[in-house]
Structures are given as C-alpha cells and as structure tokens.
Amino acid sequence: MKEVFILPRDLKLIFFANLLWNCGFGLYHFILPVYIRDLGGTIFEVGLFYVSMHAIYFSSMFFGGFLADKFDRKKLILFYWIVTTPTPLIYSFATNWKHLIPGAVMYNFALGDPAVSAYIATATSKKRMVRAFVITQAGYSLGMIFSPLLGAYLLTVVPIRWLFRVAFMFFSVSTITMLFISPQVPAKRQKDSLVSDFATIVRDKKLMSWILLFTPITFATSISMPFISPLLEDLYSFQRHAILVMSSVISAGQTTLAVILGWFGDRYGIAGTLITGFALNAVGMILLVFPAFSPFLPLAVFLIGVRQVTVSLCSSLVAKYSLINLRGTIFGVYSVLIGIGGICGPYVGGVLYESSPTQPFVWTSISLIISSFLVVILDALFSKKKLDINFRKQKHGALNRLT
C-alpha cells in the first residue's frame, strides 16, 4: 500500500475506486456462468453471451478514445461509471438468462475506458509512468483477493441474487469516489477528424510496432487464462471452494507483483520489466500443468497473477510512445486491436483444451518466450535509432560551433 501514496491525488482516488469496484465484481464474476445456466442458458449460450459482450466492449473502445481527446475526461469516466453501476442490480432481478443482456450491454459499452488510460497517462510524470499504470490497475486485483471468498461465504447464508445486490452497493460507492477526481480537459487541436487522427496514429511506426506486437501476445495469454479453473478441477480434482481460494491467490500475485514490477519498470525500463513479467508468467504456467510440481501449485497460480500486470506494463509502454494530444484515440485503437486477440484466444484455447487440458498453458508458455525475444529486438531497434538521432544532433551542433 506504500506505493499508492506516491501517486498524485487523482490517481489515488482512481485506485480506491477500482478497489471498491472489484470488491463488488469479484462477488459474482466466477459464478456468473453458473447463474446463466440456472436461468435456463445452455453452455453454448453461455459462450455466446461472453463473446457478444466482449465484441461490444472492444468495438466501443475506439469511439471512446476519440471522445477522450475532445471532451473533459472526468465527465466521460463518470458517465462510464454511472451507466455500468446498475448492471448487477439488473442481474439480480432476472428470471431468464436473456434478461441479463440489457445489463451486460450497459456494462460492456466501454466509452469511458480509454479516457481512464489517457487520464492516468496525463496525470503523472514520465518518471513514474509505469507505477502509475500498474498501481492504479492493482486496485482491481486487490479487490479480487477477498471478494471471491466473501462471495463464497455469502452463498451459504443468502440466495445468489443477493450477491448482485451487495455488488451494486460496492459499485455505487466506487462511483461516488470517482466524483472527486479533478477535471482533465484535453488541449484543443486544429485537426480533430476521426479519419485524420487514425491516419496519424497508423503512420507512427514505433507506436504501431508495439501495438501490433501486443495484439498476438494478448491472444497467446487469453488462450489459457479462462481455463485455469477447469484445469484445477479436471487435473487436480479441486472442489469449488478450493478453486475460489486459488483465484484469491492469483489476485494476491497481481497485487504484489504490480508493486514490485512497477518500481522495477520506472527504474530500469519498461521493456526489461515486461520480459521479466513474461518469464514469471511462463514459469507459473509450467508449474501449473505438471502434477509433479503440485507442491508448488500455490506459487504457480501466484506467478500467473503477473499476467494482468503485464497488461498494465503494455499500456504504460503505449503511453510512453503516444502523442499527448492523441492519447485517448491511441488507447482506443490499442484496446480494439488487443481486444481482437482477447476475443479469439478463448475459442482457440477451448479447442486445445478439448484435445488436452494442458495444451493451452504449454502454448501460452512457448508464446511468451518467443514474445520476450521480440520485445528485446524491438526495444534494441528503437533504442539504436534514438542513439543514432542523438549522435547526429550532437555532431551537427559541434559542426555549427566550429563554423
């Protein structure tokens, strides 16, 4: 928690809003598929529900990013928080799985999400950019440490519908917290058309190189992440309460490693920290899929928690190379592209899992190792270009002084 207090005031508020939000979200997140089936949905309809909602979420990102470069980002963030707050309340009154759709659409209409990323990038200095992203996002994982356990306890004393009503109360307090962040109005620009902004982003080779690298990385990690719970059940015969405990360990890993890697990233560079995150994730996957390593199972799921931290590291790297007056649109484009990977990955993972429960995790590990080499190459390439440019500037300056 010490790292939280080095953040600017507004980012502290975002951290606590994230914490409160996921204290509610974690109550029902892991049992929502069960709830859908209780309301008459088939396993196919459960999958269709999630794919459709993810498609809405990521497709709305681009327009949300464009708006974040035109209007007060606080208003966009508040709009996003207010609109999504009633979602669990809507869920609690559903009598058929189709009644969940309006709430799910509201929750996944993510116009304010790029505004949050742009707000964080603008509200902090470059020296603390990495920690700003990973610590504020760590609020989510910190909230997810205890909320699944609280949800498991509440299910023993109240019907499942009350989990959603308690979640609604957490969402409401989170929204009230967001009311106190400062306004952040982006600078006005002469060119503000969607097409010209998109063209400017696409022409930025450094930025697009990183974004295009992060898209398959997101695909590779999303192949395995949705199947951790089934693997624990199928390979290790875990009961549901034990799986909930492991989900809390994953969140504990996210929080702890966010603090460590956030400090490491600001001091030693984002690229090297990202590679460290990939390595920890790969080690966790390897320990998870081999029963011979079962004594290290808690360590395995703890390390797998670094996956969300690497997502924040990727966001901070995008922020580093983004143009200040186009940050919202850039994060919109970035979110859409990695969203494509996030949508397609679970489908491929399901096919691999049917073949062998360990296959998704093996392929993720291999992909992360390959990705580490690609990050090294890309970082070295851009660092070399930067050194060449600085050398030419110094040489030119020296010649001017001589003449």
Tell me about this structure:
The chain is mainly α and 403 residues long. It has helices at residues 9-28, 32-38, 43-59, 61-68, 73-84, 87-92, 101-108, 113-122, 129-154, 161-178, 194-203, 205-222, 228-236, 240-268, 270-289, 297-304, 306-321, 327-355, 359-402. It has a single domain, classed as MFS general substrate transporter like domains (Growth Hormone, Chain: A). It contains 19 helices and no strands. The radius of gyration is 22 Å and the shape is globular. It starts with 8 loop residues before the first helix and ends with a helix.
CATH architecture: Up-down Bundle
CA-atom Rg in angstroms: 22 Å
Number of domains: 1
Main sheet, how many strands, which sense, barrel?
none
Q: What CATH first level would be assigned? A: Mainly Alpha
Mean pLDDT: 81
Question: What's the total count of β strands?
Answer: 0
The helix tally amounts to 19
- Poorly predicted regions are 387-391
Class from helix and strand fractions: mainly alpha
Task: State the end-to-end CA separation.
Answer: 57 Å
Q: What is CATH's topology name?
A: Growth Hormone, Chain: A
Proportion of beta-strand residues: under 5%
Q: Roughly what percent helix?
A: over 70%
Output the helix-strand order: HHHHHHHHHHHHHHHHHHH
- Overall spatial form: globular
Please identify which CATH superfamily we are dealing with: MFS general substrate transporter like domains
